């Protein structure tokens, strides 16, 4: 049997597809330009809109793209229940495309059966398509993790290989300030005209995945789409020499809302979203200087302030970074003489729930734990925290390290913590060999979150994931941070971070439809003027993921507190139903994503956000993030302000 027939048999069997086997003798030769579909795609809110999109399989080997017609005509077999297409890779093998209809779109993936798996290094597996999309003007560039810049960009030319490589190599802090033009992590949406296309990985098994969208000069009504897996490390063939991409779900619909909802439905996280939470968090004014005295004082004031607010999941007090002896030594320091158990007991006695922050994968390099157990940590990599120094990263594929992580979470549960804000989770996806010699970063990340989830379920704890990629996190967490911090210690509370939160939330609406999205607390204090406070409050209300205060209530003026606790916005924030923009694609999309840091330094707003929002209670809210007065939907809206109608 030749390699093509073997590849089809192996992978279709692995995917559980029922196939009628064939060989190239009874196959059709397909030119890349004629590989399915027509120049006109009739968009609907059903999978028929994408059934004939002309996807082709591609592979990147040795820094060069192959397949998808580059190395000769592709071969399409006859008689399969689901389409299978094979394209020569220029090296004597074929890269293969599989497609099938899903409940919310078409599912596509690519794979290769390697005849020489020892000598061929597969860097990326992808599917590509030229898609007729009349009127499209913009696409969504989604960042790798919670803090990574995300938003709508204008359609532009194909990214260069150098820019793609740089975007794939960027990680940690460097990646969060991305300009977004080279690629979108996990999912993308394309639209602004009459139809909207959404493509994304809905579950993640082995490989980090990303999308690229571009439009060649002169191709006004056509876009190019690449859905890729890998790029950071070589694929490891299975026992028969086959390598697989992740599966992508693709929707094409007449309405933007329909396409986004279809993608959200396809995500299907394993956990049901619990009710949004109400409470107070210690971080955004005290930072890591929080102590027990201030915590208890603000707890009492928060009880009084929130007494009239009905919380569907009760009231919560969260002690953020400040309580631990060191990152990785998760025992209370001298600033908290009552200990975590004492605080939790007192908070619970007064009818509230108590929780803490921790970075479960990170351990300060200065701790004895690192020198005593060097094989518990990823070799050759670390995370450099700008304030707290070098951090080693736990590798839970080492059974002893896994038991250590489990013990940390068990201890917090025993102390009475009912919520864990688990932070800096992206560190678990660093590229490095794992202890077990076989797990990919994605696989070891999932294993680590499963450890935490198992303990949380045992004790009834909630998990809020921060600094986390969405797709491999959704099924393990109860909440997910959808954007960057609303304030940072070096700058304090400033305007530049407010539109950043709204832009990120708008770009990530499909994820926020299946998990409670944390857009961070509203900041109520000066120096923010009242109009900017109002803008931030509406952002929290739109996300409907909960409502936390985080100002020092001992010195917050009464009028600021009262303005923050208006019933309309608090009820929306706790209602669990998102407010949606008229479109996630602005009329004037930028070429790159401006950063909040740059805007703060330059004291100009370059971030562009959706301007018209519709709430589930029937309000229409106009959001002007610009530095000048704007006319939106026929209404005059001052700069840095919201106008509810």
- State the total count of DSSP E strands: 36
CATH first level of one domain: which class?
Answer: Mainly Beta
Tell me the fraction of residues in β-strands, as a range. Answer: 25-35%
- Our measurement of the CA-to-CA distance between the termini, rounded to an integer number of angstroms, reads 68 Å
Number of helices: 16
Helix/sheet category: alpha+beta
Mean pLDDT: 91
Main sheet specs: 11 strands, antiparallel
Shape, per Cα inertia axes: globular
Question: How much helical structure, as a percent, in the residues?
Answer: 10-25%
Architecture per CATH nomenclature, i.e. the level-2 architecture of one domain: Distorted Sandwich
Q: What does it look like?
A:
With about 650 residues, this protein is of the alpha+beta class. It has a domain at about 5-265: Beta-galactosidase, Chain A, domain 5. The strands form seven sheets. Strands 1, 4, 5, 6, 7, 9, 10, 12, 13, 16 and 17 form an eleven-stranded antiparallel β-sheet that branches. Strands 29-28-27-26-22-19-18-30 form an eight-stranded parallel β-sheet. Residues about 1-50 have low confidence and may be disordered.
Short description:
This protein is of the alpha+beta class. The protein contains 16 helices and 36 strands.
List the defining traits of the structure above.
Beta-galactosidase, Chain A, domain 5, globular, single chain, alpha+beta, disordered N terminus
Write the layout of secondary structure elements.
Elements: H1 3-15, E1 27-30, E2 56-61, E3 64-67, E4 74-77, E5 84-88, E6 94-102, E7 105-113, E8 122-132, E9 138-141, E10 151-154, H2 161-169, H3 173-176, E11 184-185, E12 187-191, E13 196-201, E14 209-214, E15 222-230, E16 242-244, E17 248-253, H4 256-267, E18 277-281, H5 283-286, H6 292-305, E19 315-319, E20 324-326, E21 329-332, H7 339-349, E22 353-358, E23 362-364, H8 368-372, E24 383-385, E25 389-393, H9 399-415, E26 419-422, H10 441-459, E27 462-465, E28 479-481, H11 497-507, H12 509-512, E29 516-518, H13 530-543, E30 546-549, H14 558-564, H15 567-574, E31 580-581, H16 596-602, E32 612-614, E33 620-624, E34 630-632, E35 635-637, E36 641-644
Helix pairs in contact: 9-10, 11-13, 13-15
């Amino acid at each position: 049997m030749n390699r093509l027939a073997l590849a089809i048999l192996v992978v279709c069997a692995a995917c559980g597809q029922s196939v009628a086997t064939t060989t190239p003798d009874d196959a059709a030769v397909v030119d890349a330009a004629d590989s399915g579909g027509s120049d006109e795609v009739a968009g609907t809110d059903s999978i028929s809109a994408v059934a004939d999109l002309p996807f082709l399989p591609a592979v990147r080997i040795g820094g060069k793209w192959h397949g998808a017609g580059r190395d000769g005509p592709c071969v399409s077999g006859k008689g399969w229940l689901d389409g299978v297409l094979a394209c020569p890779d220029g090296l004597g093998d074929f890269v293969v495309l599989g497609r099938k209809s899903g409940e919310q779109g078409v599912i596509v993936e690519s794979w290769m059966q390697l005849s020489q798996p020892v000598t061929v290094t597969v860097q990326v597996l992808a599917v590509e398509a030229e898609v007729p999309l009349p009127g499209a003007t913009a696409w969504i560039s989604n960042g790798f993790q919670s803090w990574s810049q995300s938003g709508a960009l204008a359609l532009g030319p194909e990214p260069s290989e150098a820019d793609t490589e740089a975007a794939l190599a960027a990680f940690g802090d460097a990646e969060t300030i991305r300009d977004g033009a080279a690629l979108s992590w996990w999912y993308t949406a394309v639209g602004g005209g009459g139809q909207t296309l959404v493509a994304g990985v809905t579950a993640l098994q082995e490989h980090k995945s990303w999308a690229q969208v571009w439009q060649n000069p002169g191709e006004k009504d056509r876009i190019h789409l690449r859905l890729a897996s890998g790029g950071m490390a070589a694929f490891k063939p299975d026992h028969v020499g086959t390598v697989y991409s992740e599966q992508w779900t693709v929707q094409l619909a007449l309405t933007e809302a329909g396409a986004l909802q279809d993608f959200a439905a396809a995500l299907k996280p394993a956990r049901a979203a619990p009710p949004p939470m109400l409470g107070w968090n210690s971080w955004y004014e005290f930072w890591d200087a929080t102590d027990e005295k201030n915590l208890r004082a603000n707890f009492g004031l928060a009880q009084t302030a929130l007494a009239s607010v009905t919380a569907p999941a009760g009231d919560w007090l969260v002690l953020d970074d400040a309580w631990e002896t060191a990152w990785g030594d998760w025992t209370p320091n001298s600033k908290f003489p009552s200990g975590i158990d004492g605080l939790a007991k007192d908070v619970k006695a007064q009818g509230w729930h108590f929780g803490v922050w921790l970075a479960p994968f990170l351990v300060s390099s200065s701790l004895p734990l690192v020198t005593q157990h060097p094989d518990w940590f990823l070799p050759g990599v670390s995370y450099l925290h700008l304030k707290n120094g070098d951090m080693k990263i736990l590798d839970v594929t080492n059974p002893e390290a896994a038991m250590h992580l489990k013990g940390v979470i068990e201890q917090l549960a025993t102390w009475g913590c009912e919520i864990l804000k688990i932070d800096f989770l992206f560190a678990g996806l660093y590229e490095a060999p794992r202890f077990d010699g076989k797990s990919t970063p994605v696989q070891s990340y999932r294993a680590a979150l499963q450890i935490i989830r198992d303990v949380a379920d045992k004790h009834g704890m909630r998990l809020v994931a921060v600094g986390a990629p969405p797709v491999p996190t959704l099924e393990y967490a109860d909440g997910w941070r959808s954007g960057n911090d609303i304030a940072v210690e070096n700058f304090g509370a400033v305007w530049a971070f407010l539109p950043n939160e709204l832009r990120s939330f708008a770009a990530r609406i499909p994820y926020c439809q299946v998990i409670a999205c944390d857009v961070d607390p509203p900041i109520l204090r000066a120096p923010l003027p009242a109009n900017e406070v109002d803008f931030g409050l509406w952002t929290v209300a739109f996300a409907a993921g909960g409502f936390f205060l985080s100002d020092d209530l001992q010195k917050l003026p009464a009028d600021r507190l009262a303005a923050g606790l208006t019933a309309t916005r608090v009820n929306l924030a706790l209602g669990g139903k998102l407010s949606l923009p008229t479109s996630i694609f602005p009329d004037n999309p930028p070429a790159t994503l401006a950063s909040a840091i740059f805007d703060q330094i330059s004291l100009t707003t370059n971030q562009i956000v959706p301007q018209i929002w519709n709430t589930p209670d029937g309000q229409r809210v106009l959001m002007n993030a610009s530095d000048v007065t704007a006319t939106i939907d026929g209404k005059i809206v001052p700069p840095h302000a919201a106008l509810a109608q």
